[in-house]
Design brief:
The complex is a heterodimer of chains A (501) and B (243). Chain A is of the alpha/beta class and 501 residues long. Chain A folds into 2 domains: 313 residues, Rossmann fold; 71 residues, no CATH class. Chain A is 50% helix and 11% strand. Chain A is built from 24 helices and 13 strands. A 7-stranded parallel sheet of chain A has the order 1-2-11-8-5-3-4, with helices on both faces. Chain A has a 4-stranded mixed sheet with strand order 9-6-7-10. Chain A has a two-stranded antiparallel sheet with strand order 12-13. In chain A, strand 6 and strand 7 form a beta hairpin. In chain A, helix 17 runs parallel beside helix 20. Chain A starts with a strand and ends in a 5-residue tail after the last helix. Chain B has 243 residues and is an alpha/beta fold. Chain B has 2 domains: 116 residues, Rossmann fold (3-Layer(aba) Sandwich), CATH 3.40.50; 107 residues, Rossmann fold. Chain B is 51% helix and 11% strand. Chain B has a 4-stranded parallel sheet with strand order 2-1-3-4, sandwiched between helices. Chain B has a 4-stranded parallel sheet with strand order 6-5-7-8, sandwiched between helices. In chain B, helix 12 links the parallel strand 7 and strand 8. In chain B, helix 4 packs across helix 5, helix 4 crosses helix 6 and helix 5 packs antiparallel against helix 6. Classes of the chains: A alpha/beta (501), B alpha/beta (243). Chains A and B meet through helix 2, helix 16, helix 19, helix 20 and helix 21 of A and helix 1, helix 2, helix 3, helix 4 and helix 8 of B.
């Protein structure tokens, strides 16, 4: 064990034990200075190519997901089981983290603790240098997107090669991922072909945008990287406390190459990825592929435990990452976000994501889960994090499909309440105080209704209002507003039914 | 059964015809409806925007106004869901209010499930000879779990030509203050909803919530589509044609 250090006994919550430090809140260095969600979304909404790419991709995957989920008659039980396992694990994180550390160490691995992104990146950079490598091959990993590892390694002169096809597209295009599962979802195949031709170096001169040819070009390009790399870097979908095993679930087989070929394997894993026992996996391996790629089973599942002579990497390092997770754990309502298994089902059903695209969320976690995860991991000090809890119509489609039953709308409104407590929006607050004053009293409401009915003659003789002053102009820019009726319901009742009950 | 009508602040102020329609339907079915004058607003807009402190008096007012009713019926599934799911949250820490809220909350029903579930009726004696499509609002579907109750009611309406709405279960983009705070995304969602509605060639789009209908209707009117919005209650109250 190295890095932050865990002091086990007496302290409840591994977070408190492992991560009591000057900077308990997470950082995502590559996403600093992002604009607010509504501002970023405005550009995306107007980009017809992006809209078409996103609608095409999300419609296909959500239709397929619905079909494969419907095949299981115990889906709801699986979902509740997953929720229960995750809740239990998160509530006993201190115990299970130490058990994981013990069992990984026993199996010949080394465990490192990172309070935040900067510490994790520094640990990885040191380990890569110790292995004498200047290039690493990477398995698709959300944790290292979160820490901005590639950029940090580049600053130390280390080249990180993304080997997942979509991550490779994003990396070559000097772009950012816009989806958890399909990071290049915002690109269509013609755009991908152009990126390969101009950026890959060894792309065939006669490359077309046929999917098989694009995959073939990436495959040939990556083969050399796999065979020459001394260090592989991964995340993990699950970490099993009882056995010290790590699990990566993938589709392309690039992960298997990175996890088995290089001498040194470094896995950066969020502390919430724990499962108590091997048996718990059966629930998640049923839920994850169906929710994620809409497959009954994913093509490659790699499970490894420490190191084994003559098989796979000779050095295995596990970097356990907090980066705001234990701060999230402390929150009664918000902690359910830590159940997330990064399947991206919520993105694919979200009408806001489909129109705003992933980049507007200003984090590697876009969509509904990002709207509750990023502000919790990073705190709500920035413009983007303050706006994320409002980046939802609260339609609830995300909660409906979530395989671990995260009530995303519930967390969103909770975070909004925090945001109102913490931030001063003097004008908005005044509006809500005044409207609260009117709406909480039937007498005052009736008076306001009489005023509105009287004003009807001025604002909308046609029954429709076409222009309202800001901020209500945000409504009338694209929609008419109804003019008030001559008489409210309560006035009608009182007039015709002789007073109210 | 003592039935109290919870009109909701929006319908009370802007769409009184919906309230009259609820009264018409229930009275036609032989029930008496009372309108407790002490009611005002459920506080959803304040709660959902983060202004919880301002919403607490509204939860308190609601519980007091509807104390003693066997059933509270409302033409808004969204406001019904607010009372059922979030009034207990607002009452937390105030034992008296918690007790009042937990008594009244389970008795709150949206009109559709009250008719089909509590009264066990699907044919309410309505006649509406027009082409109609139905938009299932998000909170009616995912918080009140109305299922196909509104459609079962509509199918029994005499003369109706009920057509299925493509991608019906996709949000219209209203979302309360979402429509103001994220106007571009909201308008983009509404545009797609309007496209789907126009594909049906319906004369009327109906739903169980005037808030969503105000949003959809605002776009339909701005685009001069000639398609009108009507609350489900108004179709169920109808005995002839368009008002």
């Amino acid at each position: 064990m190295s890095g932050g250090g865990v002091a086990g006994g007496g302290v409840s919550g591994a977070g408190a034990a492992a991560l009591d430090g000057p900077n308990p809140v997470g950082v995502m260095p590559t996403y600093l200075g992002m604009p607010s969600f509504p501002r970023a979304a405005r550009d995306a909404v107007g980009d017809s190519q992006l809209r078409r790419n996103l609608t095409h991709a999300t419609t296909a995957i959500r239709t397929k997901r619905a079909r494969v989920v419907a095949e299981l008659d115990d889906w709801e039980q699986l979902r509740q089981a997953a929720k229960a396992i995750k809740d239990h694990t998160i509530a006993n994180l201190d115990t299970y983290l130490l058990r994981l550390e013990e069992n990984v160490t026993k199996a010949g691995g080394h465990v490192h603790w990172a309070r935040n992104a900067l510490e994790a990146n520094a640990i990885v950079a040191r380990l890569v240098a110790e292995a004498g490598a200047d290039t690493v091959v990477k398995v698709k990993s959300m944790a290292t997107q979160e820490t901005g590892l590639n950029e940090a390694l580049a600053a130390d002169g280390i080249r990180a090669v993304e080997t997942d096809l979509a991550e490779l597209i994003v990396q070559l295009g000097d772009d950012r991922p816009s989806h958890i599962l399909v990071p290049a979802i915002h690109k269509n195949r013609a755009e991908i072909k152009d990126i390969f031709v101009s950026e890959m170096g060894d792309a065939p001169a006669d490359l077309t945008d046929e999917p098989a040819r694009l995959a073939g070009a990436a495959r040939a390009h990556l083969r050399n990287e796999f065979l020459n790399a001394k260090v592989g870097i991964s995340g993990a979908n699950f970490a099993i406390a009882d056995t010290g095993s790590l699990v990566v679930v993938e589709s392309e087989g690039n992960g298997r190459m990175c996890l088995t070929l290089p001498d040194t394997l470094i896995s950066v894993v969020g502390v919430e990825k724990l499962l108590p026992s091997f048996q718990d996996l059966e629930v998640f391996l049923a839920l994850l592929p169906r929710s994620s790629t809409a497959e009954r089973m994913n093509p490659y599942t790699t499970i490894w435990t420490g190191v084994t002579d003559g098989d796979g990497p000779r050095n295995f390092h596990l970097v356990l990452l907090d980066n705001g997770r234990t701060a999230t754990l402390a929150d009664d309502v918000g902690r359910q976000a830590l159940r997330c298994i990064r399947c991206s089902a919520c993105l694919n059903v979200c009408p806001v994501y489909e129109r705003a695209g992933g980049h507007a969320y200003g984090s590697p976690y876009p969509g509904p889960i990002g709207a509750i995860l990023s502000p919790q991991l990073r705190g709500v000090t920035s413009e983007i994090d303050a706006s994320l809890p409002y980046a939802s119509s609260l339609c609830g489609a995300c909660y409906e499909v979530c395989p671990v039953a995260i009530n995303i709308p519930e967390v969103l409104v909770e975070l909004r309440a925090r945001s109102v407590e913490r931030h001063r929006h003097p004008v908005e607050r005044a509006v809500f105080r005044l409207s609260g004053y009117v709406l909480s009293s039937p007498r005052r409401l009736a008076a306001a209704q009489r005023a509105a009915s009287a004003g009807r003659r001025i604002v909308g003789r046609s029954g429709r209002i076409r222009h309202l002053p800001p901020p209500l102009s945000a409504w009338t820019d694209t929609r008419d507003a109804p003019a008030p009726p001559p008489e409210s319901f309560r006035a009608w009742w009182s007039r015709t039914r002789g007073g109210a009950a | 059964m003592r039935i109290g009508l919870f009109i909701t602040c929006l319908t009370d102020t802007m769409f009184p015809e919906t309230g009259k329609a609820v009264v018409t339907v229930l009275e036609r079915l032989g029930h008496q409806v009372e309108f407790p004058a002490g009611q005002s607003c459920c506080g959803q807009m304040h709660f959902n925007t983060g202004y919880r402190r301002e919403a607490v008096p509204m939860a308190r007012g609601f519980a007091a106004a509807f104390d003693g009713y066997d059933a509270v019926v409302t033409p808004s599934a969204s406001c019904a869901a607010m009372v059922r799911e979030y009034h207990p949250v607002l009452a937390a820490g105030d034992p008296d209010l918690e007790r009042q809220v937990t008594t009244v909350a389970p008795r709150v029903h949206d009109l559709a499930t009250f008719l089909t579930g509590v009264l066990g009726v699907t044919d309410v004696g309505a006649r509406f000879p027009h082409r109609v499509t139905y938009h299932p609002t998000c909170h009616s579907l995912r918080m009140m779990h109305v299922g196909d109750a509104p459609l079962r009611l509509l199918r029994e309406v005499g003369g109706i030509d009920l057509v299925e709405l493509p991608d019906a279960e996709t949000c219209c983009g209203f979302g309360g203050t979402f429509a103001i705070k994220n106007p571009d995304v909201s308008a983009a969602m509404c545009a797609d909803k309007v496209t789907a509605i126009r594909q049906t060639q319906a004369e009327v789009v109906c739903a169980g919530d005037n808030s969503c209908l105000m949003h959809i209707g605002g776009a339909l009117s701005r685009q001069r589509t000639g398609v009108r919005t009507m609350h489900l209650a108004e179709i169920l109250a109808s005995t002839g044609g368009l008002a």
